[in-house]
Amino acid sequence: QVQLAESGGGSVQAGDSLTLVCTASGLSVSNYNMAWFRRVPGKERAFVAAITRTDSNTYYAASVEGRFTISRDNAKNTVLLQMNNPKPEDTNVYYCAADDVRGLTVVQYATSYDHWGQGTQVTVSA
């Protein structure tokens, strides 16, 4: 059974750093496009960052480009989201997602992803 478990969320001050960890079981993160999304009230989840299974190409939402970094540790079967200089507007629930890339895939689209974690809360205070 596939499970994605997020951890590392919490409360931080603006400008501090925080690292979210997605620990996968039942799948190998090296064989999936992996991504982070966050909640958007009344809408599909908003794309934050992704890393592809081939070439480990990375993609970022414009709002986090230059501040957040996504990476993958195949040995630990984890995906990390390093959040540098977080801002109050980054306050949200962050979700880890995995795409087996068997169908049409657009890394920024939540509908491309087959497996989701339960989310972890990040609160950034000014």
Q: Which labels suit this protein?
A:
mainly beta; single chain; 7-stranded mixed beta sheet; 0% helix; 126 residues
Describe the 3D structure.
There is one protein chain. By secondary structure, this protein is mainly β. The protein has strands at 3-7, 10-13, 18-25, 33-38, 46-51, 58-60, 68-73, 78-83, 92-99, 115-116, 120-125. A hairpin with a 7-residue loop joins strand 4 (33-38) and strand 5.
Helix and strand arrangement:
Layout lengths: L2 E5 L2 E4 L4 E8 L7 E6 L7 E6 L6 E3 L7 E6 L4 E6 L8 E8 L15 E2 L3 E6 L1
Parallel strand pairs: 2-11
Antiparallel strand pairs: 1-3, 3-8, 4-5, 4-9, 5-6, 7-8, 9-10, 9-11
Work out the helicity level.
under 10%
Query: Low-confidence parts lasting 5 or more residues at pLDDT below 50?
Result: none
Query: How much beta, percentage-wise?
Result: over 45%
Roughly how many Å is the radius of gyration? 13 Å
- Care to count the β-strands? 11
What form results from the Cα inertia axes?
Answer: globular
